[in-house]
User: Fold these one by one.
Assistant:
Number 1:
Amino acid sequence: MKLLVCGGAGFIGSNFVRQRVQENGDDVVVLDKLTYAGRRENLEDLGDAVTLVRGAIEDPVKAREAIGDGVDAIVNFAAETHVDRSISGPDAFVETNVRGSLVLLEAAREREVPRYVQISTDEVYGSIEEGSFTEESPIVPSSPYSASKAGGDLLVQSYFHTYGLETVIARGSNNYGPYQYPEKLIPLMMLSALHDDNLLVYGDGLNVRNWLFVEDFGRGISHILAHGAPGEVYNVGGPTESTNLDVVNGILEHTGKDESLIKFIEDRKGHDRRYSLGSEKVKALGWSAQVGFEEGLERTLSWYRDNPSWWHPIVDSADFREYYERHYKRPLTWREAASR
Ligand code: NAD
Ligand code: TYD
């Protein structure tokens, strides 16, 4: 296929592009703004199979340029994605996740793109104490991030109902794996442990997330791209539900570090207690998760251990250090630890 993958230089997008190029032989155009979270390096092993267009999805000229002579499908991963950043600065979230989705949908309609896949999140359903969300569950987002993702999803639905654009929405649960920007729980805790720094856990650490290895999400998206019914939503949930404390303890075990590194800090504002996603609908399309949490955690840790040349420039950057200090109200001391 010829695919336009928006946000393809980020964590999940670049893993998806790698899978499509290596397993399907696809020809891929990536449209990416290369924000702090997007990196050319994430795609550099893929050579000529990928063309990178640097630009924002909310720029209609760039969106048209990236579609070029036409594509078989658009898969939209482009988003501002970190809940904590959305709490301190929500504007960019609305601009990219809502307005950006609208501009892309309009470009897809105008150029008669045959298929549009929106990558969304379980967070649009809000928090659930017991049981699991289905695709019929009401949309009750809690954070500016999840509210902006919900806004994008509703626009996607409106383009199906109003214009007959062949849309599908894939709602994934929390992803982890190689190439994840180290502001998110799993890579941040892994790098903290490797540097003998504190693992900073919000609140009581008993919030539950439904962890999905990034390659499994990619396979789920491919199933939905190929077989999803137009206008439908598909949940793609991971095989494991864990409290944050269990995740952090698992990382300490895998790195051989002591529990005394765990430090409880002030809770996130509006912190969703539990996510749990029922995935029967995508399973009926033939998908199931292949990678268990233990294996995924081990593979992720090995990748971060083996690729310091990937994460060093990030954690040494002014952007990351400023973000870390502002958010955690303590300086990042890893450079000093590394040079000791
Ligand atoms: P990420 O932050 O690693 O990557 C986002 C990418 O989008 C980056 O390459 C960034 O440069 C690009 N981008 C940001 N704003 C842009 C804009 N205006 N125009 C063009 N490109 C822009 O995020 P991720 O974790 O890979 O998430 C990808 C998608 O999957 C998002 O839509 C997110 O909501 C969704 N999702 C993520 C998770 C998760 O656990 N990470 C779970 C479910 C769904
Ligand atoms: P995160 O990776 O930010 O994903 P999301 O908020 O989208 O679920 O956070 C996962 C969980 O880990 C969430 O309950 C918040 C918690 N968390 C911490 O306890 N400490 C941290 O430093 C971070 C980044 C997250």
Number 2:
Amino acid sequence: MGELLNVEEIFASKVFTLGKMKERLPKSTYKEIKKLMDQGGELSLETADVVAKAMKDWAMENGATHYTHWFQPLTGITAEKHDAFVSHPDEEGKMIMEFSGKELIKGEPDASSFPSGGLRATFEARGYTAWDITSPAFLKEDATGVILCIPTAFCSYTGEALDKKTPLLRSMEAISQQALRIVRLFGNTEATKVVASVGPEQEYFLVDREKYLQREDLIFAGRTLFGAPAPKGQELEDHYFGTIRERVGSYMKDLNVELWKLGVTAKTQHNEVAPAQHELAPIYETANIAVDHNQLVMETMKKVAGRHGMTCLLHEKPFAGVNGSGKHNNWSLGTDNGVNLLDPGDTPNENIQFLLVLACIMKAVDTHADLLRQSAADVGNDHRLGANEAPPAIISMFLGEQLEDVVKQLIETGEAAHLIEGGKLETGVSTLPDFEKDATDRNRTSPFAFTGNKFEFRMVGSADSIASPNTTLNAIVAEAFCEAADVLEKADNFELAVHDLIKEYMTKHQRIVFNGDGYADEWIEEAERRGLPNIKSMVEAAATLTTDKAIRLFERFGIFTKVELESREEITYETYAKTINIEALTMIDMAGKKYIPAVIRYTKSLADTVIAVKEAGVDASVQAELLDSVTARLSAAKTALDRLKKVTAQAAAMEDVKAQAFFYKDTVKTVMDELRTPIDELEMMVDKSVWPVPGYGELTFEV
Ligand code: ADP
Ligand code: MG
């Protein structure tokens, strides 16, 4: 018998939920808060004072001593600065714990140490954080104690977004407004907003902490920079959905409990394709909360691993030659009166609305394929996208056999008269079938797949924030909705106009639909013929942020200003250069201080052996041959090491960030590979006992 887990009691026990507000706030205050959450608007200082007091009391009852504005700077991770509730003691020396409404709604952290991509000059290093009232406050417990965390947006004093949350919230506003125009056209007068929902599936690796600590590359770069393949990889496919090992199982259990306490609906868990790789998926929720929760999932995964003597690797490619990690970003749009815009529905009217929405998404994804690809760019993800792994760097849409057939008929005849599975439609688009998720999951190679009532964007990297992909999705689809509504609202004959528009959009943008194998070389050629962009790296993707097309899109819906976009492009180059620089320096360190000395010692003992064997009057050709091969690789490694030192120094001295990032990608990375090759070959040749670090087999199979 396992110990009893009362999930109902545990769930959200560390969250200042709406329910707790209802219990603790005066009725009128609660109502005001609820209204602001639903409809937006400014929180008055008086109300904020009341909420702050209730929040502080609850937090202190649960052991909190500090609070923090929890935000998401452009580093992609979260930041916090703790302030204690303590204030001046009263006359009798009694400590008064304070937390005002002003402190709840606004903070003023020094922004100068966060990346701002040139925005810094315009705001003189001052920034402020503002409470995102729609994302609940929660308690975080670690060695520093219990901290009340208030999810906030982070802006400069002049209002430029310095974080990932602000543009996301702006994009949610935009998609809501534009999607409402669409549902109104179909007679939905009840809906007051449309919410983007997101469910991210998170992949991760677990390795033994002792072994992890023996590898500088894992410590500094989060991935192995050297390493020969283990005799066994993932070829037997025996790990996927395999029985979960004891140690990993108890980790998963602990992780679930911690996440449930934080109100994260951790739902499914299983082993993934690669050895030591696993996945966790929560139940989907409103986009901004899903983004916050995914950050908490990543933090909690790392924290809990430590308790089990393991380290959680969130990097997209911890091990070469083994499957990498991503995040499937499931995305849909729903009205507040319960209609999922991506659900075909049961009536002809709902079907036509669905087909219009689909046509708009086809248009959006085709028009802005470059931006969508960019939204999933991060340094680690360069090892996945376009590197013969899930998924390719080319954006395309998978619709499934049935839906693709409907689209084809609409393009050809303007009607979908029959269904592939045999059903017949009476007139035009009558009722569409349920587009069940393809049971065989043949679409695993697609970067953007329709899966029944949502789209699954599979390009996102495992270590990355999901804020940018969702900001981009919301923005590009808002634009398509806006342009469709502009036409349809003016139409004399609505039915005819919708019909024509669906046909027009689908015809114009059909090139984005691809149901085949996304890994095949033929697809790369085919995509090129279709004119679809194939942006292979993060640095090449960065410039898509500042094209006229992108600036027009984001400024039109108030999501990013031109300056904000320019800053993000610059930060991309900076981040890339810094990351590769760390990797190169780590390689230099490991090769120079560990691998090469170990191999030199080995050649010494080999040489001694050769001499001894010869002296004994016996044939030493096997030993001599090995010594020869080892020495040749040792020499290749030393040459590459010297070259890597040189190009890394050259790169570090470059002034122009863009040129620098490209130099790291084209030159430094190439030399990194040149150094890795002989070392990995040596790992397979030399005596295991002399190898200075744990290898792939020990790291991935002995967890
Ligand atoms: P998979 O087979 O890819 O794991 P699941 O059905 O388990 O697919 O769902 C994966 C994720 O998609 C989960 O996080 C789930 O909550 C989320 N999801 C399901 N429906 C929707 C929806 N309508 N909108 C957004 N996300 C959704
Ligand atoms: Mg999935």
Number 3:
Amino acid sequence: MKKILIVEDEEAIANLIKINLEAEGYRCVCAYDGRAGADRIEREEFDLILLDIMLPEIDGYELLEYVRPLETPVIFLTAKGKLEDRIYGLKRGADDYIVKPFQIGELLARVEALLRRYGKINKKLSFGDVEIDLVSRIVTKSGIPVELTFKEFALLVELIQNKGVALYRERLYEKIWGEPFMGDTRTLDSHIQRLRRKLNWESRIKTIFRVGYRLEDRP
Ligand code: CA
């Protein structure tokens, strides 16, 4: 049974969606603010997330940053119907976008289409002797688990998905932290240091002078 997380602070809307999705055979969990949503995402596995943008505590855009490394499909639910908001959401990695108020039938159709599309996507990444399960978020090196923080995990996924490519510090920072890069490289650099240490990747993650980092394609 497919499991869907609904993050929506308007409880009446969240519950209405839940009832309708459950009538279609999905299992649903509701979170009524961003922090509750983040907690759920950290603890449980979902097949799809319906995510409101304007949320107390942590907003939908920020929450999306948590979700992206998991590659769980996300549909934004929002009252914002303006074109620029829609583009912004999709650019940040949402898979689809529904403007409130919406017909429940439309929502069901989009959920179904997205789940179908994602059914074919691989949930595992590997690079050399390092394996990443994007669903359980378990990282192993030569079969031995490696403990990574949330950001380290996101950084690792980003590096592997762009292996062999020089990644600019500012781009990397903005992608992983989801906020503008203000020129302070310490946060990113210290995360890279820790990744190198934990994975024994001192020579694998190359520092590119005045640019950023590159994951070497071959040892
Ligand atoms: Ca809201």
